[in-house]
Amino acid sequence: MAAADTIVDSELDDRELRHVMNELSREEQDGAQKVQVFAERLLNVYNDAALALMISIGHRTELFDKLADLDPSTSTEIAEATGLNERYVREWLGAMTTGGVVSHNPHTHRYWLPAERAALLTRAASPNNLASVAQWFAVLGSVEDKIVDAFTHGKGVPYSAYGRFHEVMAEESNQTVVGGLDNHILPLVPGLIEELHRGIDAVDVGCGRGKALIHLAKRFRNSRFTGVDCSEETIREANAEAAEFGLTNLKFECTDAAKWDATDDFDLVLAFDAIHDQPAPDRVLANIRRALRADGLFLMQDIGAASCVHGNMNHPVGPFLYTISCMHCMSVSLAGGGPGLGAAWGKELALQMLDEAGFNDVRVEQLPHDIINYYYVAYPSP
Question: What residue intervals traverse the membrane (predicted)?
Fold first, then answer.
């Protein structure tokens, strides 16, 4: 019996060994498959990153706008219609065609932009023009070396390092903020449009080139508008544009919002995507509270995110937000000696900071067409 037991034990050992080897083999196969899947994902990332640069160029050169108006055309005809160099146009079309953005007939060598794509890529599509967003990748890429250095010294990168920042920001503001003011943003506050028609005092903190205020000042002639921003460049351009329209109910001032000393001056304070990258966001919020009259209102648009990473796992543009933040929002705050809240400072922290600044009655809204922002309707504490 001892010999038989030995044989049985040996057979069991062999089966267990084969089982273990099979499991190891399956794990290796699964591991290899996971590597392949991730490799394919990375290739898609690189292709899409390349397309983002080409989409930005297509927007800036107005190629998308022209293609939307043309019948199917050759690269030569497109170049003639746009006044651009044919060789560059042809190479750009190669990227757009292989990337599935522009359609192409290989027999006639003609290209066209389908209507469903033009609806998201042309200036006529505002505020749904997503081609303008692609400009941010080039803006951020221009400071990559400085950001890499900042990973070591931790001091951040100042606004002055970002070429075209104010230009691109103004275009985005004109498209997303101005485009949504009348039908979406102002109606968040019942009666606000009527008050603006009657006449109130309003200020936009971090107004940039003043696109939103220029729109409001043109529509609500009885109200008085002020824009404050720390950039002399943007204030100069905002004042110049306001002068072109002859707007006597609007003025712009170069002011650091952290040092702003307005007191009981305004019925309405606006801040569009301006608080989270401040060097001193707590002081800015406190100054906004002091600038408001007792029955005033603070309407703040800021990034719609949670204050923790796991709360943003299903965010439709989570990686985009954290990238923009790392390479700009967080960094410019740190460069100014600030806390570097970042774009994803989140609703929880925003509500806490609003409360600490003296806003104990805050309502948070979202707009159906806006996947990026929250809108905070905040009333000052008594």
Answer: none
Domain definitions of the chain by residue range? 1-121, 137-379
For domain 137-379, the CATH class is alpha beta
Q: Could you tell me if 58 and 120 are in contact, meaning their C-beta atoms sit under 8 angstroms apart?
A: no
Q: Are 220 and 270 in contact (CB under 8 A)?
A: no
Instruction: Give the separation between CA 226 and CA 207, rounded to whole angstroms.
Output: 9
Eight-class DSSP state of 263: -
Residue 30 has a pLDDT of: 81
CB atoms within 10 A of CB 377: 17
Residue 119 to residue 251: CA distance in whole angstroms: 36
What's the rounded Cα separation, in Å, for the pair 344 and 312?
9
Which token pair is 108?
Answer: 């006639």
Please state, for a pLDDT cut of 70, what percent of the chain lies above it.
96
3-class secondary-structure state, position 96: helix
* Span 142-156, pLDDT tens digits: 999 999 999 999 999
Mean pLDDT for 298-308 is: 97
What pLDDT does 117 receive?
Answer: 97
Helix, strand or coil, per DSSP, at residue 102: coil
| Tokens 């449009």 belong to residue | 193
Q: What CATH code is assigned to 1-121?
A: 1.10.10.10
